[in-house]
From TrEMBL:
Keyword Nucleus carried by entry: yes
Gene: POLR2I
Keywords: DNA-directed RNA polymerase, Metal-binding, Nucleus, Transcription, Zinc, Zinc-finger
Protein name from the UniProt record: DNA-directed RNA polymerase II subunit RPB9-like zinc ribbon domain-containing protein
Organism taxonomic ancestry: Eukaryota, Metazoa, Chordata, Craniata, Vertebrata
Gene Ontology, cellular component aspect: nucleolus; RNA polymerase II, core complex
GO MF term (any one): DNA-directed RNA polymerase activity
Length: 115
């Protein structure tokens, strides 16, 4: 997974320690300058984070879950719709379309009637 110039595997990115007292540093937002800092809770030591990623969570789904998602996708009001691709089974014209993650450049069409 690429995040701001680095490649990270799912999970915790790392632990940092204070250069003054050797306690653990915690992520802290500098709202004024809009940057991420690591700050010691024991002393006033702070250092700017070289990357804004503090944790990576990669979610993978089982095939059974994906089948249910595709079955329900025709009812999603947020997906774009088209009437240019009639269903080969029922002839219904309205369909929703979306890009499948398993097929990188392929769009999937599901009719709103028989899916």
């Amino acid at each position: 997974m690429d995040i701001e110039g680095g490649t990270y595997e799912p999970g915790f990115v790392g632990i940092r320690f204070c250069q003054e007292c050797n306690n653990m540093l915690y992520p802290k937002e500098d709202k004024e300058n809009r940057i991420l800092l690591y700050a010691c809770r024991n002393c006033d030591y702070q250092q700017e984070a070289d990357n804004s990623c503090i944790y990576v969570n990669k979610i993978t789904h089982e095939v059974d879950e994906l089948t249910q998602i595709i079955a329900d996708v025709s009812q999603d009001p947020t997906l774009p719709r088209t009437e240019d691709h009639p269903c080969p089974k029922c002839g219904h014209k309205e369909a929703v379309f979306f890009q499948s993650h398993s097929m990188k450049a392929e769009y999937k069409y599901r009719t709103t009637k028989c899916s």
